């Protein structure tokens, strides 16, 4: 249960910040941005939409240091931070995101995608830095650790307690909405490889492919069973609004839910989903990418209304197999792809998410001219695409937050010249 003590001091801080968010949400530009996202997801030609995805904890410590928080209670401090993030993004790098007046109360359940296996991780003492996965599937018989069935339950008592807390905190300033799962991300191979080890799995693809397929089948069976349970329990929520679509933009669309939606029971086919196999770099052929990744991912994705594919893997030479996903609408690729090839392969019938190299704002010295040069080159090479630009994976701006503001200004200036 939640151990929360909402004092007058904390509530006053939250209400002040929430009032500012409500003011921002009421501005006409929010509706204009919504329409732009609807159009791009409809595959209409608009100027490139720009988004800065500053979600890493370490970058927020530079933008909004913990010492700036004023609430005393830990729950209130979390709410305060989320409000400050919205305000900060609006006031400092006003990109194409939509700021709404909704506070989400998640429906609390035991759902997780771990297939019953604890991941072994070796982490550094510092939060910033690489970590190693320790194999937990060592012997071939260990594949039986991958549980194919699970029983999902919802803790409505805890959910209702959280809703009351949020409602009491925000009052009538912002709308508090209970929401279930509104977006799913599938990465069967990326999950399997964490349990097995990267080098060993790459050898397994050649030495024991039948065994690898057995593992992927078990993971996929688990995913499908959980999806069907959640749908039957009526704890899914629509993702046709301000839902982040993984390594891309937002879910605003007038093509979901399906025409036979009854207005009450959200089904899998009324939602967005994404899959990715980031571990499959260019050393994995398109044929093997399909065999050991997409053929399983598409069984999941095609249950949904619309789907996205990719994150940080180079897909510019693999679009022939990615396109086998029937309901594909968006593709996101590594910052290091051949943009010219990617542009040609993606074409005009998919949204292409271009991700600039985040190092552009993270190097020791800030070089705005270089940022302009890189963006201009990308815009020129993607002139025939339906494009969005997502600056993500930012872990530092060297304590110079103005870099993000300047990058945003350059991106908007160039985007206006795009069409």
Strand arrangement across the biggest beta sheet: 1-11-10-9-8-7-6
Run of helices and strands: HHEHHEEEHEEHHHEHEHEHEHEH
Question: How confident overall, as mean pLDDT?
Answer: 94
Radius of gyration: 22 Å
Contiguous runs where pLDDT drops below 50 for at least 5 residues? none
Number of strands: 11
Structural class: alpha/beta
* Shape call: globular
The description of the largest β-sheet is: 7 strands, parallel
Strand content: 5-15%
Helix content: 40-55%
How many DSSP H or I helices?
13
Terminal residue distance: 53 Å
Quick summary of this structure?
Helix 8 (209-233) packs parallel to helix 9 and helix 12 packs parallel to helix 13 (402-416).
Description:
The protein is 42% helix and 11% strand. With 419 residues, it is of the alpha/beta class. The strands form three sheets. A seven-stranded parallel sheet has the order 1-11-10-9-8-7-6, with helices on both faces. A two-stranded parallel ribbon has the order 2-5. Helix 12 (368-381) links the parallel strand 10 and strand 11. Helix 1 (8-25) packs parallel to helix 4 (74-92).
